[in-house]
Write a structure and sequence with these properties.
The complex is a heterodimer of chains A (about 525) and B (about 290). With about 525 residues, chain A is mainly α. Chain A contains 22 helices and 4 strands. Chain A has 3 domains: about 5-55; about 65-260, no CATH class; about 290-360 and about 370-390 and about 445-530, no CATH class. In chain A, the strands form 2 sheets. Chain A has a two-stranded antiparallel ribbon with strand order 1-2. In chain A, a hairpin with a 2-residue loop joins strand 1 (about 20) and strand 2. In chain A, helix 2 (about 25-70) crosses helix 22 (about 495-530), helix 13 packs across helix 19 (about 430-450) and helix 14 (about 320-335) crosses helix 16. Chain B has a domain at about 60-135 and about 205-285: P-loop containing nucleotide triphosphate hydrolases (Rossmann fold, 3-Layer(aba) Sandwich). Chain B is globular and about 55 Å long. Classes of the chains: A mainly alpha (about 525), B alpha/beta (about 290). The complex binds adenosine-5'-diphosphate and magnesium ion.
Amino acid sequence: MEASSPASHLLVNKSRIRLFGLSFDDCIRVFFGGNAIVSIIVLALITYFLFREGAGFFGQNRQNLTVYRQAGLEYIDFIRAQQDDHTALTRYLSDLRLRQFRHYTQEAKLPVADANAKLAVFDDFAGQFGDTVEPIRTLVSDLTEQASAIKEKFTVMEDKKEERRQLMAEGRKGDADRVIITPVNFAEELKPIIGTLPAYKEASAEFSRRIEQVLATAPVLPTPELQVRMDRFKQLTREYLSGFPAVVSHLESWDYAKPVPAVQALTSFIFGREWLTASFWQDWYGVIPLLVGSLMVSAVALLLAVPLGVGAAIYVNQIATPAEQKFIKPGIEFISAIPSVVLGFFGIAVLGQALRALSQASWLSWVPGFPYSERLNILTAGCLLALMAVPTIFTLAEDALNNVPRAFKEASFALGATRLQTVIKIIVPASLSGIISAVLLGLGRVIGETMVVLLCAGNRIAIPDFSAGLAVVTQPVHTMTGIIAQEMGEVVQGSIHYRALFVVGILLFFLSLGINYVAQIVVRRYRISIG
Amino acid sequence: MVITAPILMDTLPSAPTIRPATAPAPAATAPAGQAAPAAETLIDIDHVDFFYGQSQALHDVSLQIEDKKVTAFIGPSGCGKSTLLRCLNRMNDLIDGTRVAKGSIKIRGVDIHQADVDVIELRKRVGMVFQKSNPFPKSIYENITFGLRLQGVTNKARLDEVVEKSLRGAALWDEVKDRLNASGLGLSGGQQQRLCIARAIAVEPEVILMDEPCSALDPVATAKVEELIQELRTRFTIVIVTHNMQQAARCSDKTAFFYMGKLIEYADTRNIFTNPANAQTEAYVSGRFG
Ligand SMILES: Nc1ncnc2c1ncn2[C@@H]1O[C@H](COP(=O)(O)OP(=O)(O)O)[C@@H](O)[C@H]1O
Ligand SMILES: [Mg+2]
């Protein structure tokens, strides 16, 4: 340095490295700050993209529901619901037959042929009851054809419109003008359908009369317990009959031109009990079956993972010798290194098989739901997800336990507590909020997991039958993550189905966000409580 | 009621004379391990060597702790005071690799390191108060009843009674009686330490070990705890580790001076501070090293 005096020499900035006019320190700041900003921008972009793609769904869904109404599908579904309820009643009768059969063969120890003979009267009754619906069934199938035709016309019109729009966009105006668009006059088209109302009323009355007749011939069942069920059946049937006038009034007041409220586009998604796509009749985008599937699988996973993860954390943190710690900790943490597709593969090839084989063991037949035949179901997926959640829960719970001051433990021992008492009464309560947040983050991990549920949950899109009690876990389900992974590749970009999948993604996003948020709140409270 | 340290200084030196069984304290009693003849020995520490793994922390320590007296352990940092104290209720068992390699510690004639001794029972009889106050993150009430509940006491009336008695015993009752269900962590540092003392006396131990109970407290809180020790001395045998020579002089009947893991001198507190037999003791108590 050729500075003249020592004092000014000290004041000169010695850093000679400059980039775009920035000093070295500034560059470092820009580098790290830049990294932070990039991640935030990416997050913002993802959110934006998700919402942009998803938002269009609601308009399209409203259109979807409007066509459902205008083409008369809704009208017919009123009658179809009546038919479906009747089917449910006949199912009740089949169930009742099974119970009687069991009674005869197992309690009365009759041979199968004799049991069937004894059931002849009942079978006759059930058969007659089943036949009562015939007039309605014929009507519905006729109407279905007509309405499908109207919908088809509408779809063709929409396709033509789209074709013309595309030709215009390409600048081929001449070709575009040659595309013929036949507008659909719904009022006109619907006339024949609505015209069947008197026929329906007649059919319905006939239906009702026949049911009354058949009901009067209901046989008396062999045991009081079975008779109670028979009475219940009669009562259900009477309730069913008393609903008929309501159907008529629905049909009478139905108006194809009544606009579908905008909010229904949302509610039919959130509360919709059916996810039905590419169907010939009507597509439904109701998220409930998928949401319930995801929640059920997660619940089973947590039920298994929480005791395992927290228990292992307590053991490693409080009881294990250093040698054991060295062995257990990396072992558990290693589980998270297994690719989830490998776990899913394992689930299909090994776990699903093994669990099913186990369920068929006779000494386990007392377990609800055992034996079962669906190899891939809530239980299989839940077990595997539990395995994936254990490392998360274990690591975080272990951290929480570690944060409990040693002084608490010493004080407890000094008062004459045993190791177990100290763990249960001091260590776990003191770290409880940390453990809860560990569990919540484990839940977040599980709910977002895709590959395992796609491979192992059975992928049946239906709300599981909760009336089965605990056995519900042996039913297959589909999940929110699974449906996105499965269907996203096949859908037409921009279609309502495509957008519906994005809305499922948004819901998933909010669910994870909520879980993480709650976990953070819990952790914050926990820091304060340790003080 | 606030008692300041100077008042305590005035009153305390005369305290030993109140009690009947104090030894006459001639200079000749100086050698370590010599109990005063009239007092009953409660804890007999006999030629103890103690190791943390390979490193020896206590060398051939022998001393007799007398019943219903306050015994102070003094000495420079790292000389093994806490180690010896924690031997008395076997808290060192919690540290891996520790062992008493030689000698024995007997309480009322029972060797506490014998295999058939129930450590849990031992710790109920030998309570402990730590250097840094450590109330549980629970309510004041739950803190005090913790030990009793461990012993299976569930009777609410009995628990209530013990809570009041212990808090009165720890001179904390008037300050907290209206907020027994508030968290113990919400108390001031001095109150927390007295809560820990209340928690320790709630299980009615015979001995209370205190490891520098005032080192984290301000002078006013320290004075309160010292005053409390004076009240507790009639009911409990107290062993207190302290860094503070005045505190040892004010509070204790007997004092043991340790240096580098060895017991250098053990005698009546008055002798240690006025007429130590050992040159090292003298140098330490007069503040020339430590
Ligand atoms: N947990 C431990 N592990 C290993 N060495 C220890 C441990 N605790 C204390 N020591 C050692 O034992 C000696 C005595 O320590 P300590 O009893 O705590 O001293 P004091 O309480 O008199 O300050 C010191 O040399 C210390 O380093
Ligand atoms: Mg110490």
